[in-house]
Amino acid sequence: MSNLNKKLFLWLLLGISVLIWIGLASVRSIASADLVRLLKLLPTVVVIDCVLVGLFAKWFWKWHLLYPWLVPFPNLSGTWTGEIRSSYKDAVTQQKLMAVAATLSVRQTFADVSCVMETAEMRSTSALCGFDLNPDRQQRQLAYIYCSRPKLSISDRSPMHDGAAVFDVIGDPPTKLSGRYWTTRGTTGDVELTRQS
Predict the structure, then answer these.
(1) Where are the domains of the chain?
(2) Tens of pLDDT along 44-62?
(3) d(Cα 97, Cα 95) in Å, to the nearest integer?
(4) Strands 100-108 and 122-134, sheet pairing
């Protein structure tokens, strides 16, 4: 993720590498003056570093202890449920629709995040997705561009469309997403979601 504190991460990795190198030299009883044998430990140090980085990218980044000093983006993985209130009007009655129950599924890894929103009538999937984080403005947002595909049975009154959504991430750890959206068919709306799993 682009928001990673890269400078701190590299210094931390360098420090861990030095500790591994010193630990290996100690276990193998290599004197500090024996430069050749010390240099032969470098490939082992690199392999251990690669394993640790792999474990970090797979699991460790989710640890709450690393947030926000090293990993500034929150872990939103899971299912979020709530409702959508849309400005969309029924084509026949010209009445606004009632609030619609919705489920947002967030899949997040260290390098990527994707969102799928579902209601009884449609399914939208994110194309571009990321975080907008600014601690100075007390801002933590998840934003994404999506394509919404309504069920074929209602496509005459609700055509496929594109849109964008922005959610404020509320709670630490996050428990609510409060957002709004805009679509290419000229509709807007508010979305309120609560974390379920």
Answers:
(1) 6-66, 78-195
(2) 999 999 999 999 988 899 9
(3) 6
(4) unpaired
Residue 28 has pLDDT above 80, yes or no: yes
CA distance 1 to 17: 23
| Fold adopted by 78-195 | Lipocalin (2.40.128)
Phi, psi at residue 40, to the nearest 5°? -70, -15
Find, among 195, 172, 191, 174, the residue nearest to 182 by Cα: 191
42-58 and 6-27 are packed helices; what angle lies between their axes, rounded to 10 degrees?
130
Tokens representing 17 are: 């590498």
Report the pLDDT value the prediction gives residue 12, as an integer from 0 to 100: 92
Interacting residues of 50 by C-beta distance below 8 A, sequence separation 6+: none
Dump strand ranges (E) for the chain: 78-86, 100-108, 113-118, 122-134, 139-150, 161-170, 176-183, 188-195
Summarised one tens digit per residue, pLDDT across range 143-180 is 999 999 988 777 777 778 999 999 999 998 899 999 99
Among positive and negative, which fits the CA dihedral 125, 127, 133, 134?
A: negative
Spatial CA neighbour of 34 closest among 14, 16, 26, 43: 26
- The better pLDDT of the pair 52, 95 is held by 52
The predicted model scores a pTM of 0.80
